[in-house]
Amino acid sequence: MKNIVIVCLLLFPAISLKAQFNHIVEAGIVVYEYKINQYERSKKLLGQESVADKYRDYLYSLEQNRFVSREYKLSFDRNASFFQLMNNKGMTNYLDFLLGIPTTSVYRDLNVDSLRMTKETGEDTYNLKDAIVPIKWKFTTERMDILGYECRRANAIILDSIYIIAFYCPDINVSAGPSIFSGLPGLILGVSIPYDNINIFATEVRLDNPEVPKTSLKKETRKTMTFNEYGDFIKSLSSSKSRIDYNQRSLYF
């Protein structure tokens, strides 16, 4: 019994130190899976056009392979975060283009209210710079374990009508997250956007060897635009080629 007490006393400082360390983590790397239900998104995008013969084979192919995944890496510290696409399934036709030009990087200076985003399709690169999208979070009592980290749930409505669910980890004390999502008292490890059929969840967390977040985007091939300017540009392309009602809100994700 005496030996057990001694072992417990020896282990307690180490356990206590680990618990304290978890609460002061301020830098690291997180890998996310960005998963999209392309079948459901296509049907919503097409609307009444979804029954047209010219889209029948396309939708059938998506029904057999509903999900597409992209892998992103987020490097972060107390001052900045950099969210970067690691792989990208090539887009094969115009509908793929409209489903959302993939975001290839998002850089955020956490000390100012702005972000820089890069989107690419084929050989075209688009650089966006704008104010951070304001998110008014509502906290809940729900918890979720993500890769061994206890995360808390918060809900919000952004861009007037998009409902989002986020799970953040208070033990990683950085107010950042994947893509444009941030503003919670801890790093966001999971995001669900039900209407847009998007789920972004961490698949790996590395806190032992953090990287310094990048501070610049790729060389500009077009002028830097705001989100609204870019949305109008993409909408003009879609309206000139089809009757599809393009939802430019998807550009943010």
List keywords for this structure.
eleven-stranded antiparallel sheet; 25% helix; outer membrane lipoprotein receptor (LolB), chain A; 253 residues; single chain; alpha+beta
Walk me through this protein's architecture.
The chain is α+β, with helices and mostly antiparallel strands and 253 residues long. The protein has one domain (27-252): outer membrane lipoprotein receptor (LolB), chain A, CATH 2.50.20. The chain contains 5 helices and 11 strands; from the N terminus they run H-E-H-H-E-E-H-E-E-E-E-E-E-E-E-H. It has an 11-stranded antiparallel beta sheet. A hairpin with a 4-residue loop joins strand 10 (187-193) and strand 11. It starts with a helix and ends in a 12-residue tail after the last helix.
Secondary-structure map with pairings?
Blueprint: H1 2-22, E1 28-37, H2 38-46, H3 53-64, E2 67-76, E3 80-85, H4 94-98, E4 103-109, E5 114-121, E6 124-131, E7 138-146, E8 149-158, E9 162-169, E10 187-193, E11 198-206, H5 227-241
Antiparallel strand pairs: 1-2, 1-11, 2-3, 3-4, 4-5, 5-6, 7-8, 8-9, 9-10, 10-11
